[in-house]
Amino acid sequence: MDLQSLKYFQFVAMYRNFSKAAEHFYIGQPALSRQIASLEKELGVQLFDRDTRNVCLTEAGRVLYDNVDLLLRHHEHVLSLMDAAKRGYEGHLSIATVRDFSPLFTGFVEHFMAAYPNVHTRVEDVPFDQLTESIVHGVYDAAFTLDYAVPNNDKLATMPIGEDQFIALMRHDVAPELGDEVTLRELLGQNLIIPRHIDPPFLKQLRLTSRERRGTDGGIEFVPNTTTAVLQAGLGMGICFVPKRILPTAGGHEQWKICRLADVEARFSLLLVRQKDNESRTLQNFVDLVRDERRGYRVAR
User: Fold this and answer.
1) Whether residue 134 sits in one domain with residue 59
2) What is the pLDDT of residues 237-277, one digit of tens each?
3) How far apart are CA 180 and CA 105, in angstroms?
4) What is the maximum span of the chain, computed from C-alpha positions, in angstroms?
5) What's the predicted TM-score (pTM) here?
6) Together in a domain, 79 and 194
7) Are strands 256-261 and 156-171 parallel, antiparallel or unpaired?
8) What CATH number corresponds to the domain at position 145?
9) How far is the C-alpha of 262 from the C-alpha of 253, rounded, in Å?
10) By residue range, what is the domain housing residue 94?
11) Which of 37, 83, 221, 255 has a Cα at 20 to 30 A from 199?
């Protein structure tokens, strides 16, 4: 399959619009349509149902769309391996994680890069729902993710590397009546901003309580990521939820009011995830370093 055609398909599927996808790539719509038609012919399936107003994915199109990002990432991974070999690196380590949670894990990566300077190390931002799949399919060697986001899979090995808890974050002038601890029912009277990429158990309880209390003032707005949620909370648009340890990256610590969640379990573990059968010496060195760091040992330079 032509990789550029896959990228065209990905954006048509995302926009549900050929014209917007063509504008994104600065090409004409007829040229884009020809690329998609060529891809459909090569695959032997119809990817889109089209009429004069709507563009919808077929069942085959949905299957491809659900996996196209991993296909493209795997291609980039292979190119990165080849580039590392050409440049004389002695090993390669690829790590997937969610950018907004970087304060929870970057220390491990920095220490590994200092201890193994001849290893080509890269870290990429991957959507939460693709993290473990990217490990299962070998697109990345390891991933940092949260415990509730890891499905049961006998191909995966996990190692806890830290703990944290979600907190409610808001400007001091947003909800002055709230104390240092808040309940779900108190929160439901407020405007809540929730990133789409996180879904810890307490948020499921929050949505359930919201459905039980129809007509409550306030509401829940879903935004693309944690960065957007913190930005909107900083503008006084509502209350968001973030891990406590990433709070310093929100900037202007003094402007924030922090509330602990009183009646739900908001704690979580950060995990290092890898394939059980990945016997790469480089990956094992990274796992050993992380384990030693967790135990408080000094990393050998």
Assistant:
1) no
2) 999 988 888 775 555 567 789 999 988 888 988 899 999 98
3) 28
4) 65
5) 0.66
6) no
7) antiparallel
8) 3.40.190.10
9) 22
10) 69-162+269-295
11) 255
Specify whether the CB–CB gap between 61 and 47 falls below 8 A: yes
Residue 69, SS3 per DSSP: helix
Are the beta carbons of 224 and 156 closer than 8 angstroms?
Answer: no
| Cα–Cα distance, 171 to 193 (Å, whole number) | 13
301 is a domain residue: no
Query: What is the spatial distance between Cα 44 and Cα 66, in angstroms, rounded to a whole number?
Result: 18
Question: Do 284 and 116 meet the contact criterion of CB atoms below 8 Å apart?
Answer: no
Name the nearest CA neighbour of 206 among 195, 217, 192: 192
Structure confidence by residue, pLDDT tens digits, 26-85:
888 888 888 888 888 888 899 988 876 778 899 888 888 888 877 777 777 677 767 766
Q: What share of the chain is helix, strand, coil (3-state, %, to 5)?
A: 45, 25, 30
Beta strands in the chain (DSSP E): 48-50, 55-57, 91-97, 119-125, 142-146, 156-171, 181-182, 191-195, 219-223, 239-243, 256-261, 267-275
